[in-house]
Amino acid sequence: LATCTWKALPQRVKIVEVGPRDGLQNEKTLVPTEVKIHLIDMLSEAGLPVIEATSFVSPEWVPQMADQVEVMKGINRRPGVSYPVLTPNLKGFQAAVKAGAAEVAIFGAASELFSKKNINCSVDESLQRFEEVTKAAKEAGVRVRGYVSCVLGCPYEGQVSPDKVAQVAKRLYSMGCYEISLGDTIGVGTPGGMAELLEAVSREVPVDALAVHCHDTYGQALANILIALQMGISVVDSSVAGLGGCPYAQGASGNVATEDVVYMLHGLGIQTGVDLPKLMDAGAFICRSLNRKTSSKVAQATCKL
Amino acid sequence: GMVSVSMGRKKPCVFCTRCTLTHEYPEYVKMIEVGPRDGLQNEKEMVPTRVKIQLINMLSETGLPVIEATSFVSSKWVPQMADHTEVLQAIHRSSHARYPVLTPNMHGFQDAVAAGATEVAVFGSASETFSQKNINCSIDDSMLKFEEVICTAKQQQIPVRGYVSCALGCPYEGPIEPTKVAEVVKRLYELGCYEVSLGDTIGVGTPGSMAKMLHYVMEEVPSSALAVHCHDTYGQALANILTALQMGICAVDSSVAGLGGCPYAQGASGNVSTEDVLYMLHGMGIKTGVDLSKVIEAGDFICKALNRKTNSKVAQARSKSS
Fold first, then answer.
1. How distant is the alpha carbon of residue B114 from its chain centre?
2. Cα(A25)–Cα(A247) distance, rounded to whole angstroms?
3. What is the value of ipTM here, to two decimals?
4. Closest Cα of chain A to B164: distance in Å?
5. Is A287 known to be catalytic?
């Protein structure tokens, strides 16, 4: 059984909004460019400090992100807000910088099988590729955020060792990532596993440089986020309206809804800088455009009162 | 701002400023299944008696230790529970489970006992307005009614469970003072309830307000006599339950498939899903004695019968996994 030493909760939590990229990338409906731009602008207005705008992957693989350059150029960049974009390799990085990106993100995995199936190479090979990106990013003065997926379980390998996650996180941090986001890709994690994971990873990477990216596929996301906060984490990824289903359990939910995270944080007296009603407006907008219901419970509850 | 609670001799809490504390989770959590009563009562569809019976029988097979079977309220007020006697008499009672029934007053209690009830439950509120609107009397007057029931139940060796609704907020009054909650819980406990379930009736609670409320309540009543009944209307239920566990609570109410919407936010969800709670507890190594896959089966059954989708994320994920 897990026994833990609890720390006091952070006074402030930075929310990294991944709806426009991670969210939309996992939605079946192709979203028009102007809708993406308007969504990002509404999210900026809602006070989110970091908004993942798009992905510089090949449009062959991810047609939803084919309008990457247009989106980058079309959004209204709010001062003080960061708009990271995914760059799987040097080519994508160069295109991103050309399009005006000031921050990029790279995506590693803690599972060999997942790495092979997702990006067609081993974890080591992917890290070598990323090193090219972080090198170039350093020279260009561009910040790099690292992601590790499958941190609490893999759709192919099943259980994932926290030490393996720690190793991958450490490598990403050493090569220059300012922050490492730990992704529970299939949402199978529970608070005990999350605590164990964070203990292992925080031995290799300072807890200030860690974030959690929880999926709500099994309804565990908020509980896992709460534990993470108790262990000193103060950066949380989430997706407006809970956009982005789970590609490994069709029809099941994926990303945790930003509205629900903000509701919990504000209820705890933790500052986020986010205006919840404006955030819910953004969620309502994108759900209308996608012709889908929100996955946020807060949005569902509030709109019916 | 941050919650700051004067604790006296109590251990400081993680939700207050600057403290460190080593916590252990309970080894075992008692699951109280409220789907057949609280769940179905809040579903629009009228459920045939045989469906209710089959649901309860399926739930008995899962290992759930407590299954709230029905409610002996007037069928005028709650038509869904009009078949209370039939249900209670027809269900197969497992030797390892208990089947409490709601009894709002002496009349209901007598009917329940006549129908074979061996455990009953009474429903109080921490909010005056809610009490008036829900059961048409003040908190004080409701306590008088409950006292009658509890005294009579005691004489017949029938255990009584108490509920306190609006423990973390009221649809009419808004925030509820934790001291008021503690007062009502204490009254029920001292009247003779063996356990009091703290209900976040509209699901507005968050870990901070849950912790604060539990502090005050646990100053009056031991944690071993408390349970939490969290609603998932704002998605906060599992986080709130986790908080309660960290504070020493080891009894949790939930509803198979998350049956039972919220009557105060139409279309919004209500009860937390038993499947999702079990997934969390089992993942943490906490024992419950309950077979999750059998609960999922019971959930599938009742959702088909109700022609509705499950509210349980675990059930959704399991049914769609490739």
1. 25
2. 10
3. 0.94
4. 22
5. no
